[in-house]
Amino acid sequence: MSMAVVGMIAGMALAFAGYFGGFGAFLLVAALGAVGFIVGRFLDGDLEPGDFFRSRDRDRDGRPR
Description:
Largest sheet: none
Number of domains: 1
Strand content: under 5%
Helix content: 55-70%
Radius of gyration: 16 Å
Number of helices: 1
Oligomer: single chain
């Protein structure tokens, strides 16, 4: 499935949540979608837990640039 189709489905889900549930439901769906995206990236191996806690001025092996 292409990223355009995934984006369209996500947009439609947010639109339905906003239309039928109001702004609070829109925010809830958007937040849970972001959490699902991050969990999916972890499961794919694209992210590691240390990526959120490591400073930006260091390489992946921990050495300063």
